[in-house]
Amino acid sequence: MSNADLQTRWEKMLFGVRRSSRYHQCRRGFFDRIDRLSNIASLVFGSAAFYGVLQGPDTKVLALWTSAGVAFLGVVNLVWGCAIRARDHSDFMRRYVALEQRMLQPASEDLLLSITADRLSIEADEPPALRVLDCICHNEQVRADAGPPDEYVTIGFFQRLFSPFFDFFAHSLKKVGDKPKP
Fold this sequence. Notes:
- This protein is an all-alpha fold.
- It has 2 domains: 3-127, no CATH class; 129-182, no CATH class.
- Helices cover 73% and strands 2% of the residues.
- It contains 6 helices and 2 strands.
- It has helices at residues 3-55, 60-80, 82-102, 109-125, 131-144, 157-162; strands at residues 153-154, 174-175.
- Strands 1-2 form a two-stranded antiparallel ribbon.
- 19% of the residues are buried.
């Protein structure tokens, strides 16, 4: 294969590795925020429940509702496992950064094959990706690399809004440069 072909594949791999690193950084940040907000809300509800118990029978309803709030947040945090998920995505991000560090070496066919194998190994361990969030990370990486405008993916307001939670109309995602089929 030609040197130009190797360089093209190398750049595509580097772009993909960086995009994946961004994706896991976004997921880690999301789960960290949810965990932190849940802990803060539990602290507030727990304090209010404690206050309600100490103030006597007039605030019994406050104590019951805030205790229920603490229990609910505990269940949500336990079921979602936000802290564990944040740690997992942090580990994935570190693995991708390690691949990117290896790509600082001069491009070679053997190194590209090794990095491809390692990337596939990481992808085998990853949970299913949120396509809309992945496209947002794609756009961020295109912007960081000063890529051409036709490489951007068009993402709607509601798609962006719900991207940390689930894919909203992921089938409608298209690059700006894609032409409609006749």
